[in-house]
Design goal:
single chain, alpha/beta, two-stranded antiparallel ribbon, 9 helices, about 30% helix, about 20% strand
Amino acid sequence: MKKTLLALALPALLAGCNPSDNDSQPPAPAAQAHEFLVQLSSGAEGIGARPTGTEAETRAAAWIQDHLAGWGYEVQNQPFTYTRGGTDRTSQNIVAELKGQSDRVILIGAHYDSTGEKKGSEGATDNGAGVAALLAVAEALKGETLPYTVRFAFFGAEENGLNGSKAYAASLDTDAVAKLLAMVNYDTIAGGDIVYVHSAHSDVAEYNCADPSRYSFDPKVRDRLLAISQQTATPFAIHPSYSGYPEGETGSWSDHAPFACLGVPIAYVEATNFTINGEDGYDGYSQSTNPALWDCYDDATKSACDRDSETQWGKIWHTEHDRLDKMAELFPGRIEQQLGANTDLMIRFLKAPGL
């Protein structure tokens, strides 16, 4: 990581909520993850929607910083600029590191901004869940010495172009890249019907890398997470092959992509449903068969009753359904279960990576 990264100055309004001020033992990581999700994504009880480039996105970054610093992590802030719609914009990545027995690094990342607020989304599944799980992992593992160094990265401005992860990847020099053993991307890890884990696509053309010769689609991180998941309450699945995408391989539409382009083996975890014949086929963009998310769902065809008139297509992300109160009505207990399982799985993986 470049030495130009600066510590984030916290807003005064957060100064009094340092978690280290409380000497009581925290809840189990799975329960703590859900509490973090409430604090981050609930408009009634926390920050709520965090549209890219807004004050709410900045508040979320400060909130993440406050927790990590309260647990004793040295936290770094990486401000970056990007251009969107002909306008220069700014955001920041929040990064903390847990030194391990080796200086080889496992990077685990999640973006904290959200989108779809005009439709009522509060970004609970996309991607409050990923952030909440990684924060719970960071708290549970504080002070431990693991086999490898663990780097927690919380990316800004993902929703309008993966800007945070691209900026972070671009900031790494040759030595820093060489130390990256793996990257795991937690994006939309709870909410959908099935939790999947993917590796990068075996065709480098899918990723549009600046230097295709460095690209890695090694599935070893995916396969290790898949194996560990069998010991949890929510075993992962590998998506079946569909047009353009071989079994278990994913495209470049989330924060794992810049790291695959650097030659780092990646895994991408998401909760959705690849068995549905959605608006554009079996592509995972329909997250659920729940009838409330469809104008009319036909279980026999795993699709809309009328493909020409369907408007909802089983989608949660970026819609009015992506909020905790709606998810509790649609899927009682699902968010808690999937979030908890993903939190426990990551702790197990970091303690015994098997890479």
